[in-house]
Design brief:
Length: 210
């Protein structure tokens, strides 16, 4: 029987605090959230928060990083970008679109958009730990799949951007500005992602000799 990875106490406490911080950020926004509020709700001291995260910006960065990992690492960390392209892209796309269409990520996105003019660093943190991290992971996978002959991506960065763009499409902006426009079910998400994967593989399938 495979043993579960034992999470060190310090790492587990860090994850617990970040989960509390995420709820506080969503409730109060970035500006109104303080390290003291998070510490109180997490049953910790401010010193503990500063030791783990360094600053409020560092704490926010951890919240966004953890969300991004849910896309390429799976909800329980079981999915990684490994395996046949069709299945990897399908799972990645499904995780990404399902997460983006959830209320909490949309609220987090709105917080960043509202705060970025006053706190440009917040926008950089969000992009670096969220979209850019997912792009990096997918790019690395596409490069490896191309070396193995499973795909033919001459420019893996461009290919990754095109796939992620096809998955997100107009769904994200629709949910931000007109959330009641269309009811999005998991069946519709899966159908959308399967079409995006089919388009991608039609372009980047490995070339075969005649």
């Amino acid at each position: 029987m495979e043993k579960c990875r034992r999470i060190p106490r310090g790492e587990k406490r860090r994850e617990e605090i970040a989960a509390v911080a995420e709820r506080v950020f969503l409730e109060l926004g970035f500006t109104e959230t303080t390290m003291q509020i998070v510490a109180s709700r997490a049953g910790a001291s401010k010193e503990t928060l500063y030791r783990h995260f360094g600053s409020k910006e560092g704490l926010f960065s951890e919240v966004v990083r953890a969300r991004a990992e849910r896309v390429y690492g799976g909800t329980e960390g079981e999915f990684r970008l490994q395996g046949a392209p069709r299945e990897v892209l399908k799972q990645l796309g499904f995780n990404l679109l399902r997460l983006l269409l959830n209320d909490d990520p949309l609220c987090l996105f709105r917080i960043v958009v509202a705060e970025a003019p006053r706190t440009p660093e917040l926008g950089r943190i969000f992009f670096e730990q969220g979209p850019a991290q997912i792009l990096r992971e997918l790019t690395l996978y596409l490069e490896g799949a191309t070396r193995q002959g499973l795909l033919n991506c001459p420019d893996s960065v461009l290919a990754a951007k095109l796939f992620l763009g096809a998955v997100v499409a107009n769904r994200h902006i629709m949910m931000l500005v007109a959330p009641d426009w269309e009811q999005i079910t998991e069946e519709k998400i899966l159908q959308h992602v399967e079409e995006a994967v089919a388009l991608f593989l039609a372009r980047y399938a490995p070339t075969r000799p005649d």
